[in-house]
Amino acid sequence: MSKIISLGIWALGIMLMASQKHSPLLSNVGLSVLAYKATAFFIPRVGAAFIRRGFSGKDMNKVEKRVIPETMGAVSSMVYFMCMILFIPVLFYKYLVPEQSKNQPENPLEVLSDGYTSVAKAQFPHDQLGAYLSAVISILSISLLGIFDDLFDIRWRHKFFLPAIAAIPLLVVYYVDYGVTYVSVPTLLRPFFQRSIVDLGFLYYIYMAAVAIFCPNSINIIAGVNGVEAGQSLVIGLVVLCNDLIYVFHPSNPEAVRAHLLSIYLILPLLGVTAGLLKYNWWPSRVFVGDTFCYFAGMVLAVVGILGHFSKTLMLFFIPQIFNFILSVPQLFGFVECPRHRLPRLNVKTGLLENSYTEFAEGVPLPTKTLLTIRLFEAFRLIRVDWDQKTKRPIRCTNFTIINFVLYHTGPMREDHLTLCIMGIQLAVGLFGLAIRHGLAPLVYPQDNI
């Protein structure tokens, strides 16, 4: 029965791809179904080869500490790139094939000649192709960084800004084809600025580079639990897709529709490969995604936000990641000691995940900045701190991550339930972001800032 269902999914994908309506959107849906099937097909078949090459790791939150394949995000990213390349002739089909060739294919020479003439007359949308290819190049570049990170375990401070370099092709094409660097001023603030828009100039490109830096790293920081990296990426991708569909099916202007269609073309295959990866990364995980997937998925989301002209809206969907980054700042920047791994720990007796802690050595005086940070975060109930009642000195505190924050407030939890909880928070925040963007924003901004 499972084979019949599998063949049916393959057939559905092929039928959608081969649709005689020549609809790029419909073909992209079919291609995304094939991307899911291809990812789910290859991952279990290449796992042993990855282990032989040293791409493996132990699942620390299991009693038996099994060794399983790692860096499976490389498989997802490669399938994604193949889909993106195969989609190019589909996306630009109507420009590559003359109209008469679809109805009268009897004279191939005439058809070929007319086709070249069509392209030569500048009817071909070179700006769209440039934007599409720049997106693929940026995503490919960051995926290579992820592979290098999995290979050589690059230090955080060395790799943090590298996504900005990977985003250079995208930013250059944005400058050449769009060049929009202004932002709308909220209605209430316009009397102070005495204008409806403010041109940020070069600062806008710095902002977009910051988005390209933040998205991959933020996905990578929320990690260490089976399915959480792929799960959060899947939820954010679905929310982004909903945002795109609102624009496409309730069009405000042609430019908005075109921008969000491009976003859909990039996000649907991501959902396909992520679902295929999550099938094997879900608890109990049979593979690890590796840093490759985190950088790859994060960059795809950053790219669609930039090319779709909704990078500010995208940040609403990344509120859990922003919260996690702010929460992690004390350990990331050395205010509090940061262990190599901050993932929750398994209670062998109960089979549940509990908070992981940073221990403070007895007899070693703590810096003032550490004590102030601990007291401040404890006051806001962001961390749990165990104090020595005699010396009034902290003994240990929970690690500064959103995963430990959730466990601190909910108590011990089974690993898959913890992942579902994080995904639930991500979904709730995403829906809240959509409500803000399409409910409150029109009251603050008189017109859409596409």
From TrEMBL:
The reactions it catalyses are: a di-trans,poly-cis-dolichyl phosphate + UDP-N-acetyl-alpha-D-glucosamine = an N-acetyl-alpha-D-glucosaminyl-diphospho-di-trans,poly-cis-dolichol + UMP
Question: Which enzyme class, named as a word?
Answer: transferase
Q: Which of UniProt's keywords are assigned here?
A: Endoplasmic reticulum, Glycosyltransferase, Magnesium, Membrane, Metal-binding, Signal, Transferase, Transmembrane, Transmembrane helix
Q: Which GO terms describe its molecular function?
A: glycosyltransferase activity; metal ion binding; UDP-N-acetylglucosamine-dolichyl-phosphate N-acetylglucosaminephosphotransferase activity
GO cellular component annotations of the record:
UDP-N-acetylglucosamine transferase complex
Sorted alphabetically, the Gene Ontology BP terms of this entry are:
aerobic respiration; dolichol-linked oligosaccharide biosynthetic process
Q: Where in the cell is it found?
A: Endoplasmic reticulum membrane
The coenzyme or cofactor needed here is: Mg(2+)
Entry membrane topology: Multi-pass membrane protein
Bilayer-crossing regions? 34-51, 72-93, 129-148, 160-182, 202-222, 262-280, 292-310, 316-336, 418-436
Query: What pathway is this protein said to act in by its record?
Result: Protein modification; protein glycosylation
Function description: UDP-N-acetylglucosamine--dolichyl-phosphate N-acetylglucosaminephosphotransferase that operates in the biosynthetic pathway of dolichol-linked oligosaccharides, the glycan precursors employed in protein asparagine (N)-glycosylation. The assembly of dolichol-linked oligosaccharides begins on the cytosolic side of the endoplasmic reticulum membrane and finishes in its lumen. The sequential addition of sugars to dolichol pyrophosphate produces dolichol-linked oligosaccharides containing fourteen sugars, including two GlcNAcs, nine mannoses and three glucoses.
The UniProt similarity line reads: Belongs to the glycosyltransferase 4 family.
The protein depicted here goes by the name UDP-N-acetylglucosamine--dolichyl-phosphate N-acetylglucosaminephosphotransferase
Q: Which species is listed as the source? A: Schizosaccharomyces octosporus (strain yFS286)
Q: Taxonomic lineage per UniProt?
A: Eukaryota, Fungi, Dikarya, Ascomycota, Taphrinomycotina
